[in-house]
Amino acid sequence: MRANTLIMIVLAGVFGVLAVVLANIWLAGQRSAMAEANGTQRDTVVVAAVPLKFGDALSVDKLREIAWPAGAIPTGAFKTTKEALAGEGARQALQTIGVNEPILATKITGPGQRATLSAVLGEGMKAVSIRVNDVLGVAGFVFPGDRVDVLLTRTVRDSDGADKSFVDVLLQGMKVLAVDQVADESKDSPTVVKAVTLEASTKDAQKLTLAAGAGQLSLALRQAAASKGEMTERVTLSDLTGETPADVAKRQAELEKQAAADAAAAEERKHTEDDRKRADDKIAGLAQAVDRVGNKLDQLSKVKPVPVVASAPEVHEVVKEVVKYVQPAPPAQVTVGVFRGVKLETYDVPRQP
Question: How far apart are CA 128 and CA 151, in angstroms?
């Protein structure tokens, strides 16, 4: 290997090491500058020092204060442990709180308040329990905090005397507050339950209470992120065999009839528009013809009359005709009739002067 090549390799290695050292020094300076700049904008927030579950009482050894950006403090957070434990009586956790998770006012009870369902309910909401079994309760896989749809199965007798069964989606996106008598959201083992408590508005609570006696209630577990409702329709036994339900067929017939009426109305409007357009075209044509005649008359009125030279009268010869009446000569003979009995005989005799 030549000496020049060896020298270039050594210099490249030296410059590479130097670049890495300088980059590390620059990054360290930037981190220090950012820390110093943010040092004046920091505050403290109370977080959980140990995992907390539903019903755990808060104490000094279970909480701690950590640094937090002053402009990003969560709503309802406490800045000091003393503030979080202020008031007479202990506070309890209303839901599972992980380590280093901020303690919020909505996640704990008030001073001296017990961790009950009444503390978990939202503003204006009610807690309603419905009876389920191992099948209707989604095989025990419904836990506090989940969202479910409530289905109502009923059997009614129609006008023909036949029983008709159907299923309706009664309510959607109902929050599960408790399963049996357990409201701890950290519960993760499925168990067969007998009752599920749901959070509902006053009207929805009335629906659930009425539906419990009108038919059989069952639950359908929703996806955790699915919060919006969806369009639903009644399902009957005819849907299982592929036949169109009577109510759906009636609705489809009404829609088809309405569509046909709309199409007929649109066609009639189209014909009316065409007739109006043709009438407008005729009126426009007549107006144009009147305009042309008017323009022609205007042009003729502007033309000066040409003087007419009178010619000499012609002389005609008048022929006068004279009619003279000549009385005819009397006949030389006359006819004379003579009756002989009943027979008429005629004789031509000379006329006497």
Answer: 15
